[in-house]
Amino acid sequence: MKDTLQYFFDKDADILYVSQGPPRADVDSDEVGDGVIARLDPQTHEVVGFTILNFLKRSDQPLPAIVLPFKTELSLTS
User: Cα(28)–Cα(47) distance, rounded to whole angstroms?
Assistant: First the structure.
């Protein structure tokens, strides 16, 4: 389902992976911020996921929270 948001946290590597729908292997990557990588559909260039490196280490830093350069729409599914 493309409309679902899936995530996986790799504790050993301290990396958070987030995908719109199931993770895909056929994507392009673009670093859009310090350790924030957007995964893009190679044909439409739409964001289909993102990766955050050093995820927990970032939480040790003082606020403000990390602002990601992504826009999303949230809705409930039944």
Answer: 9
